[in-house]
Each structure stands twice: as C-alpha cells, then as structure tokens.
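Recall that a protein's primary structure is simply its ordered list of amino acids. Everything else, from secondary elements to tertiary packing, is in principle encoded there. The following example makes that idea concrete.
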Amino acid sequence: MTSTVLNRPEQVSTDPTSFEMYPLAAPANLKLDHFDKMLTGIGIWQHSAGDEPDRRHGYSIDDQVRGLIVAINYYQAGHESNFMERLGRVCFDFVKNAAIASGKNAGRFHNFCDEHYRWLDKIGSDDSLGRTIWALGVACDADLPFAPAKEARPLLDRALAAAAKLSPVRTVAFSILGGQRSHGELIGDLADRLVLAFRDSAFDEWSWFENHLTYCNARLPQALFIAADLFPERPEYLAVAKKSLAFLLRVSQNEKGSYSPVGNEPLTSRGWYTRGDERPPLFDQQPVDAGALVECCATAYQVTGNPTYRHAAHSAYGWYFGANVHGISVYRPEHGGVADAVTPTGISENMGAESVISIHLAHQALSSIG
C-alpha cells in the first residue's frame, strides 16, 4: 500500500500561478492499468484500498454509467477498442440488470450491489438516476454493438419519465445531458426548472442555484449551456449559465491563483460551502469536481466560442497534474490511478472508480476542444 502523502514529483516544477501550463505535461493518452484492475465481469469496483480494489464496498451504478460514457467515447475515437468494448459491455449490462421494470419505481434503477451481484437497495438515489439518464442518452446517440440504441432507448424513455417528477437540481441537470438529443420539449421544461432555482436562490454576490455548493457543481451551468444551444430563442438559459459558471470559477480559486474544487471538511464541522461562509472549504477536494468543471468549460467554449472557457478547462485539467494547492500530481503516471482527494496533508492513498473515471471524461472533453 502506498503512503498517505506522496512527495512532490520532480516533473511539477512550474510556477503554480501559471497553472494553465500544467496540462502541457499531461500524457497524450492516459494509462489504463489501474482502470483495468478495477474492472470485473460485474462492473467497476466502487472503491480501492491504496491501488487495490476494495471488495467490501461492491459496485455502484454511478461508476458503471460514467464508465459506459468513457467506453463509448474512446471506442468511437478508435482508442484501445478491445478494452473499451469489454468495459462498455460490462457497464451496459450492469445498467440493464439494475433497471426496475414495474411497480411504483418503474423506470428507475438500483444503485448498489455487493461482490456477488446482490442488490443492496430497493431503489437508487435521484442523482444516480440522473447520471444513468446521461449515459443512456450517450448510448442512444452512439448506437454501438455493446450498447445498442434499441436496448438503451426504452430504458432512457422510462427513466426520463421518472425523472420528470423529481426536483433535485443535479438530477435535473444530468437529465438534460442525457435527453438533449431526443427529448427537446422535456429538456426545455427541465432547463426552466434550473433557471427558476437560480432566480429563487441567487442574491447579491451569491450567483448560484442553491444556498450551498456541494459536489459536481459544474454540471448545473453545463446543462444550461446545452439548453442554450438547443433553444437560442430563450436567452435566459445562456445568461444564467454564464453567470453561474463565472461565480463557480471565482470561488474555486485558491490564494495561489490555481484551481481548488469546493471541498468538504466534516472533521472541522465546516462541511460544504454555504452562503454566508467566509470562504469555501479547502479540503477534501475531489477529482470528480475537477473533471466536471473541465467538461462544463469545454461545453461552454463549444457553445459560445469564448476562449476564456477553453483556458478555464485547461486550468481545471491541470489540477490532476499538480496545479493544485499542494503542487502534487493527483494522477499516478505509473499505472493511471487517480487519488481520491486532496487533503490537508497531501493526497489520499486510495484511488476509487469515481476518481479514475473522472480524469478520462475530462481528458475526452479537453480533446474535443484542443
């Protein structure tokens, strides 16, 4: 098992305030050794102990749907096709098996199962439903042999019908990401909900959808950039997308000028960042937030053409490679693992599925904008 705190690597030697330079040191292709180690015939293990899978925590649909998107994107690009086909098939089978076909929860999915493929819940969370919708939308659009549209489409339609009744803003945002290509009218209704949430919460310097910032915050403005592209006649989508992303970028800079995802400090009783706090919690910063911001800023650049967003995407990606408060690379170049958090003393020793998948999604988004 690796030590809790990794030493500052030799390759990270540039000025942290010039953090746009860090992605230039990132590899052209990320290593897949750790990713492969985390994959079984059931799915991707949820957690690790050091760089070894931790079987005690089983599997989560959240990791399988993100893994499915990674597999689809790389397969379409011709990158490591054999591994991506295996990854995509395993992840899509997990989603199909997790689907709840009848009863009051029809259209939804289980989230957690143990190492023996026994479901540990009656129904998954609202946010896991949103993430599953996102992946199913990508699968429908790609229509690949390991995740054919004819199998993904019924799951997506039923899931969107279930999500239409839900209100959590991240569920709404992920549903927009998944339904953008096929459910235009519903997407407009969902985007209206995000705008309404923003108007109800935003006040003075607090330009956000809720009274707090927690995890995957960038998915909210990302969804509205997508909606703005779909509905250019509704300028409020783009206005709120720009304003909320500007706020997120502002509060996500540390005193060194480099990117710091909003942390969560339960041990100090701070928790997440709440309106009225003097500053966001600095630790524990998580890779999934850095990756979400890369994807959001890439989407914003594609929709608007504003180079500021492209720069911000590169800056957030640099967080993985040392453009963070410690100047330590979170990405492990020897096997492709990603530490689970930036902590007060360094970086986490563990490298779970969410973390390693996040860097691949970020890498794919960054590749799409150059």
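The two ends are 36 Å apart (CA to CA). The longest strand covers residues 48-49.
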